[in-house]
Amino acid sequence: MDLEAELARMAGAYGGTGEPVTHPTRSDVVVVRRGEVVVKAHSVRDDPDLLRMRLRAANAPALTGLLLTSLDPEVRTVGDRAVTVWPTGVPVGRDDPDAAPWEEGARLLARLHAVPLTMMPPLPEAAGPARMARAVEAMPGHGAAQRTVRRAYAALPDPEPVPRLLTHGDWHLGQLVRRGDRWLLIDVDDLGTGDPAWDLARPAAWFAAGLLEPELWSRFLDSYLASGGPALDPADPWARLDLPARALTVQLAAVAIGHAEAEERELDEVEQSLIQSCGRIVGLRQG
C-alpha cells in the first residue's frame, strides 16, 4: 500500500468518511483529507522526537483557542514517516488578500508569544533560522540571481541575544484555519522557543519588497502591537524586525530560485522582486 493510501486508511480509522483528497504542499510532505479528518506525513527531515515535543505543546491547555488541537496526542509512524492526525478547518482564501484575516493572525501571534514558557512542556528551539539556512544551502545553480542571494545571506549580521519566547517558527496566512467562528494557528513542525520577531518576518519581508500593500502591512502590524505582542517595541518596531525580515527575504528568494529551476522557467515578476531585495541587502552591508 502506498503512502497516500495508507494515510487515507488511517483517516478512516479516526472517523474520516468519503473520498480521500491529497492536498498540495511541500514536495516531501503529504497531507490527506478524508471528510473531517486530516492526516499529515511529515518531512523526512523532521526529527520524530522533536515532533513529539511539539505535538505535546500544541495540545497543552495554555494553547487552547490558539493552536489547533490534534485528534491523536501521539506521533504515529507510517513507513519512515512521522504522522500526525488533525481535525479539518477552512483555510484562508487565496483570491482576495484584502479580505484575508491579517488582524486575526496578528492577534493570535501576539497571544502565542505572550504564553509563559513555564506553562508549557519542554520545547526545542524554533526552527525558523535553520529553515533559512537550509533554503540557501539547497538552492541550485550558480547564475547571477544565485550569486546575489548567496551574497545577501553572507551579508546578514549575527543576531543579537533576545529573550526567548514561545514562537510558531514558520508563520504565514497558510498557517491559519477557521473552525466554527474562530481562527486558529496550525502546523507545529517548527514550534519552539526563540525570537518571536521571526514570526512576523515573512509579511515584513513582503512589505519591504513592495509585494504587500502598505495598508495590509499596517493592519497586521497595528493589530499585533495593539494586542500587546512582546516581539516588538511599539516606538520602533523595525529595530527588532529588520534582521528577521532580511533573513526571510533571502529564504524566500532561495526557494523561488529552486522552484524556477525545477520547473525549467524564468523567474517571474514576484520572484525577481525578491532577488532585487537581496541586492539591496548586499548594498546595505557594503554601505
From TrEMBL:
A Pfam family reported for this protein in Swiss-Prot or TrEMBL: APH
Domain of life: Bacteria
Taxonomic classification: Bacteria, Bacillati, Actinomycetota, Actinomycetes, Streptosporangiales
Gene3D superfamilies: 3.90.1200.10
UniProt-listed SUPFAM superfamilies: Protein kinase-like (PK-like) (SSF56112)
Organism: Nonomuraea dietziae
Name by which UniProt lists this protein: Aminoglycoside phosphotransferase domain-containing protein
Limits of the Aminoglycoside phosphotransferase domain: 102-238
InterPro entries reported in the protein's UniProt record: Aminoglycoside_PTrfase, Kinase-like_dom_sf
